[in-house]
Specification:
By secondary structure, the chain is of the alpha/beta class. It has a single domain, classed as Rossmann fold (3-Layer(aba) Sandwich), CATH 3.40.50.450. It is 38% helix and 20% strand. It has 5 helices and 6 strands; from the N terminus they run βαβαββαβαβα. It has a 6-stranded parallel β-sheet with strand order 4-3-2-1-5-6, with helices on both faces. α4 links the parallel β5 and β6. α1 crosses α2 and α3 packs parallel to α4. The longest helix is centred in the first third of the chain and has 16 residues. The chain starts with a strand and ends with a helix.
Protein backbone atom coordinates (compact mmCIF):
# COMPACT_ATOMS: atom_id res chain seq x y z
CA UNK A 1 0.00 0.00 0.00
CA UNK A 2 0.92 3.63 -0.22
CA UNK A 3 1.03 7.00 1.46
CA UNK A 4 -0.80 9.97 -0.02
CA UNK A 5 -0.89 13.64 0.83
CA UNK A 6 -3.65 16.19 1.10
CA UNK A 7 -3.18 19.81 1.94
CA UNK A 8 -4.16 23.31 1.08
CA UNK A 9 -2.74 24.64 -2.15
CA UNK A 10 -2.16 28.06 -0.68
CA UNK A 11 0.07 27.28 2.29
CA UNK A 12 3.29 29.25 2.45
CA UNK A 13 6.66 27.60 2.82
CA UNK A 14 7.50 27.19 6.47
CA UNK A 15 10.52 25.35 7.85
CA UNK A 16 8.43 23.90 10.70
CA UNK A 17 5.94 22.41 8.25
CA UNK A 18 8.77 21.04 6.10
CA UNK A 19 10.49 19.53 9.14
CA UNK A 20 7.25 17.92 10.38
CA UNK A 21 6.50 16.61 6.90
CA UNK A 22 9.96 15.09 6.54
CA UNK A 23 9.68 13.46 9.97
CA UNK A 24 6.32 11.85 9.08
CA UNK A 25 7.60 10.66 5.70
CA UNK A 26 10.67 9.11 7.32
CA UNK A 27 8.47 7.44 9.96
CA UNK A 28 6.37 5.95 7.15
CA UNK A 29 9.49 4.74 5.32
CA UNK A 30 10.74 3.05 8.48
CA UNK A 31 7.37 1.24 8.65
CA UNK A 32 8.16 0.01 5.12
CA UNK A 33 5.82 2.37 3.29
CA UNK A 34 7.77 3.07 0.13
CA UNK A 35 5.20 4.27 -2.42
CA UNK A 36 4.04 7.86 -2.21
CA UNK A 37 1.13 9.17 -4.28
CA UNK A 38 1.04 12.90 -5.00
CA UNK A 39 -1.48 15.17 -6.66
CA UNK A 40 0.93 17.73 -8.04
CA UNK A 41 -1.32 20.75 -7.39
CA UNK A 42 -0.64 23.49 -4.90
CA UNK A 43 2.05 24.33 -2.42
CA UNK A 44 1.58 21.40 -0.02
CA UNK A 45 1.87 18.90 -2.88
CA UNK A 46 4.98 20.69 -4.13
CA UNK A 47 6.51 20.65 -0.66
CA UNK A 48 5.80 16.92 -0.27
CA UNK A 49 7.29 16.14 -3.70
CA UNK A 50 10.39 18.19 -2.91
CA UNK A 51 10.91 16.51 0.46
CA UNK A 52 10.55 13.08 -1.17
CA UNK A 53 13.00 14.01 -3.94
CA UNK A 54 15.53 15.11 -1.32
CA UNK A 55 15.06 11.90 0.69
CA UNK A 56 15.58 9.70 -2.38
CA UNK A 57 19.38 9.62 -1.90
CA UNK A 58 18.98 8.49 1.72
CA UNK A 59 16.15 6.04 0.93
CA UNK A 60 16.63 4.86 -2.67
CA UNK A 61 13.79 2.33 -2.42
CA UNK A 62 11.08 5.01 -2.14
CA UNK A 63 8.98 5.85 -5.18
CA UNK A 64 7.05 9.06 -5.72
CA UNK A 65 4.20 8.90 -8.19
CA UNK A 66 2.35 11.84 -9.69
CA UNK A 67 -1.32 10.87 -10.03
CA UNK A 68 -2.78 12.96 -12.83
CA UNK A 69 -6.49 13.86 -12.96
CA UNK A 70 -6.47 14.66 -16.70
CA UNK A 71 -5.07 12.48 -19.44
CA UNK A 72 -4.88 15.30 -21.99
CA UNK A 73 -2.73 17.73 -19.98
CA UNK A 74 1.07 17.95 -19.85
CA UNK A 75 2.68 17.84 -16.40
CA UNK A 76 6.11 18.70 -15.08
CA UNK A 77 7.28 15.31 -13.84
CA UNK A 78 10.83 16.25 -12.74
CA UNK A 79 10.05 15.75 -9.05
CA UNK A 80 8.54 12.29 -9.51
CA UNK A 81 9.73 8.80 -10.33
CA UNK A 82 6.67 8.12 -12.44
CA UNK A 83 3.18 9.32 -13.25
CA UNK A 84 -0.09 7.44 -13.51
CA UNK A 85 -3.57 8.23 -14.71
CA UNK A 86 -6.24 6.45 -12.63
CA UNK A 87 -9.42 5.12 -14.29
CA UNK A 88 -11.18 8.46 -14.69
CA UNK A 89 -12.09 8.32 -18.39
CA UNK A 90 -15.82 8.50 -17.67
CA UNK A 91 -15.61 11.18 -14.98
CA UNK A 92 -16.65 14.71 -16.02
CA UNK A 93 -13.62 17.05 -15.98
CA UNK A 94 -15.05 19.22 -13.21
CA UNK A 95 -15.03 16.17 -10.89
CA UNK A 96 -11.71 14.68 -12.03
CA UNK A 97 -9.59 16.11 -9.20
CA UNK A 98 -12.11 15.01 -6.57
CA UNK A 99 -12.22 11.47 -7.99
CA UNK A 100 -8.42 11.36 -8.37
CA UNK A 101 -8.06 12.36 -4.71
CA UNK A 102 -10.51 9.65 -3.65
CA UNK A 103 -8.57 7.12 -5.74
CA UNK A 104 -5.30 8.05 -4.01
CA UNK A 105 -6.94 7.75 -0.58
CA UNK A 106 -8.40 4.35 -1.51
CA UNK A 107 -4.93 3.12 -2.53
CA UNK A 108 -3.21 4.36 0.63
CA UNK A 109 -2.70 3.19 4.19
CA UNK A 110 -1.63 6.58 5.48
CA UNK A 111 -2.71 10.12 4.69
CA UNK A 112 -0.28 12.90 5.57
CA UNK A 113 -2.28 16.09 5.57
CA UNK A 114 -2.02 19.78 6.18
CA UNK A 115 -5.63 20.86 6.56
CA UNK A 116 -6.47 23.88 8.72
CA UNK A 117 -10.02 24.71 7.69
CA UNK A 118 -13.21 22.89 6.78
CA UNK A 119 -13.71 24.03 3.18
CA UNK A 120 -12.04 23.29 -0.14
CA UNK A 121 -10.61 20.24 -1.81
CA UNK A 122 -8.09 19.36 0.89
CA UNK A 123 -10.79 19.32 3.54
CA UNK A 124 -13.06 17.25 1.31
CA UNK A 125 -10.25 14.74 0.73
CA UNK A 126 -9.46 14.56 4.45
CA UNK A 127 -13.13 13.95 5.27
CA UNK A 128 -13.19 11.16 2.68
CA UNK A 129 -10.11 9.60 4.33
CA UNK A 130 -11.82 9.78 7.73
CA UNK A 131 -14.90 8.01 6.31
CA UNK A 132 -12.62 5.33 4.85
CA UNK A 133 -11.00 4.89 8.29
CA UNK A 134 -7.49 5.61 7.03
CA UNK A 135 -4.58 6.40 9.31
CA UNK A 136 -4.18 10.17 9.19
CA UNK A 137 -1.52 12.57 10.39
CA UNK A 138 -2.65 16.19 10.10
CA UNK A 139 0.42 18.39 10.36
CA UNK A 140 -1.77 21.47 10.81
CA UNK A 141 -2.62 20.17 14.27
CA UNK A 142 1.10 19.94 15.07
CA UNK A 143 1.95 23.37 13.63
CA UNK A 144 -0.91 25.41 15.03
CA UNK A 145 1.14 28.61 15.04
CA UNK A 146 1.44 28.68 11.24
Amino acid sequence: MSVTFCGHGDIYYDSDIKQSLQKEIETAIKRDETEFLLGGYGNFDLLAATVLKNLKSKYPKIKSTLVTPYIDKKYDTNLYDESVYPPLENVPKKFAIIKRNEWTVDKSNLIIAYVKHSWGGASRTLNYAVKKKKDIVNLANQNSNT
